[in-house]
Design goal:
The chain has 309 residues and is of the alpha+beta class. The chain contains eleven helices and ten strands.
Length: 309
């Protein structure tokens, strides 16, 4: 039967905590861990307050909020995805990409103030040109909800896509990994819509192209051959040594990523009260297989306007 380990705690006035743990559940295994020095930090909380109120004040000390009316971006990144995707088709698995697209649609639905979503590789970026008003703009609340929603929806979509499209086949271990993908999330503000657009340019021109070229090159060259090579050098190696032109050999979404944005469309239906046919406008999400590679007025409108033009 397991026993609890007795722990002796000694507090000193200088706010340093010394902890000694003695394992005594089995005399043969009894030992004392060397004394560890832990540091505490002084917080401006009145210790005479009731326990629940003190704990809430400790929590609120780290509950930062986003600025009012500043453009905000949300970036979600797959955690350990190079290991996760190694069980699927290389260099690009359409089902993983489709799951990312569907997850972006879910995020746009969850955050109606976001105007555009961009995904490349294992990453998603959402733009809020007029800030985030949900959940009192609390960064911890927004980040934790975003990461959990993204993880849950991606796993659900990937499981569905793999079940509906078992070909091309994946490793048996891929099925064991289903449901284990997770994402981290970060919210941050930028001073202008122009800088929000620059963030998309950064993710597309820098990371999307580099990630895609690297993934594709690994199917042709060894780690040793690729070591220390820049993206331009890898592209030259492909063409010179393998006769392969990168952008002609991979799907466009693998090169630039994809953009998602709401659009309005005309719908014809019957008015249940009058029985007459009427035309109305509805909203849906449209996906385009392209990224943001130039700074332009058109792309600035992409960031600031609610619907596709």
């Amino acid at each position: 039967m397991h026993k609890l380990f007795p722990i002796s705690l000694h507090f000193f006035h200088n706010h340093r905590l010394f902890q000694t743990l003695t394992f005594s559940s089995n005399p043969l295994l009894a030992q004392t861990i060397p004394r560890m020095e832990l540091h505490t930090t002084s917080y401006p909380v009145d210790k005479r307050l009731p326990l629940a109120e003190r704990m809430k004040q400790y929590e609120s000390s780290f509950d930062f909020t986003l600025p009012v009316n500043s453009p905000v971006l949300l970036r979600l990144d797959g955690h350990g995805f190079s290991r996760f995707t190694s069980h699927f088709c290389r260099p690009f698995d359409q089902r993983i990409h489709d799951a990312m697209i569907s997850t972006c649609v879910d995020l746009l639905h969850f955050f109606p103030q976001a105007t555009v979503a961009y995904t490349q590789s294992d990453e998603i970026t959402l733009v809020f040109p007029f800030g985030v008003q949900s959940f009192n703009k609390r960064v911890q609340k927004l980040s934790s909800l975003s990461a959990s929603l993204c993880s849950v929806r991606f796993n659900a979509h990937l499981t569905a896509f793999l079940g509906a499209n078992p070909e091309p086949k994946v490793k048996e271990s891929a099925y064991e990994k289903l449901g284990t993908a997770c994402f981290d999330a970060r919210f941050f503000a930028v001073p202008s819509a122009e800088e929000a657009l620059n963030c998309l340019l950064w993710r597309c021109r820098n990371d999307a192209v580099r990630n895609a070229v690297g993934a594709f090159a690994r199917t042709m060259f060894s780690t040793k051959e690729m070591h220390g090579k820049k993206t331009t050098e890898l592209l030259e190696m492909m063409e010179r040594e393998k006769g392969v032109k990168f952008e002609e050999s991979v799907p466009k979404w693998a090169v630039e990523g994809c953009l998602m944005k709401r659009e309005q469309f005309e719908h014809e239906g019957v008015n249940l009260k009058t029985g007459e046919t009427e035309k109305t406008f509805r909203t849906r999400t449209r996906v385009e297989e392209r990224g943001v590679r130039i700074f332009s007025e058109e792309n600035l409108r992409l960031v600031t306007e609610k619907y596709w033009p």
